[in-house]
Design brief:
Blueprint: H1 2-19, E1 29-33, E2 40-44, H2 72-77, E3 81-86, H3 93-98, E4 101-106, H4 122-125, E5 131-136, H5 153-156, E6 167-173
Parallel strand pairs: 3-5
Antiparallel strand pairs: 1-2, 3-4, 5-6
């Protein structure tokens, strides 16, 4: 009998401890495009329930209208958009067939960084409409067939951004491609 009372008392205190935990944060959530990997990342924003959540990086939202542009020249001409290109080697069939253009993305929300494009970090490069990013195809990206295409968001970047992460290599001047 004594052991049973102890077990009941312990389970009751466990329930009381669980009930005392703070409520889970209710949102809001935002999906942002990481300029270093081109992947979409879900972030929670501060709210009344959770005011201590640090601010999100100044990355643009995923599924932005710039991402619907599937032509490099149109991307360069579109205000507020920037080019992402694949770094190709001489034996890369993807570049020979479709060219190095990966996709078009919106600019980051930070003010543009001055100076030359070359040498800028991914986040600084992504603030400039006159700069483009050059990327390596990530190990988790498809390497064969139609899905390995680099001609646009629909084939190179899945809408969820989870299954294909690129790696930023360098920033270049869009008017003088690398």
């Amino acid at each position: 009998m004594g052991r049973r009372l102890i077990a009941i008392a312990l389970s009751g205190s466990t329930l009381a401890a669980c009930a005392a935990e703070p409520p889970a944060c209710s949102g809001p959530f935002v999906t942002l495009r990481n300029p270093a990997t081109l992947a979409c990342t879900v972030r929670q924003e501060a709210s009344a329930d959770c005011p201590d959540i640090p601010p999100s990086p100044p990355w643009p939202v995923c599924k932005h209208p710039c991402e619907a542009i599937h032509d490099e020249a149109a991307c360069i001409a579109a205000p507020g958009c920037r080019v992402a290109r694949l770094l190709c080697d001489a034996f890369d069939d993807r570049c020979a067939e479709r060219g190095p253009f990966i996709a078009c993305f919106p600019l980051d929300l930070d003010p543009p960084v001055g100076g030359a494009c070359r040498g800028l970090a991914p986040a600084a490069c992504a603030t400039r409409a006159d700069c483009g990013g050059q990327y390596l195809l990530g190990p988790d990206c498809p390497h064969t067939g139609v899905d390995a295409g680099v001609a646009g968001v629909a084939t190179a970047l899945p809408p969820d951004g989870v299954s294909c992460n690129f790696t930023f290599v360098t920033c270049f001047d869009e008017l003088a491609p690398p």
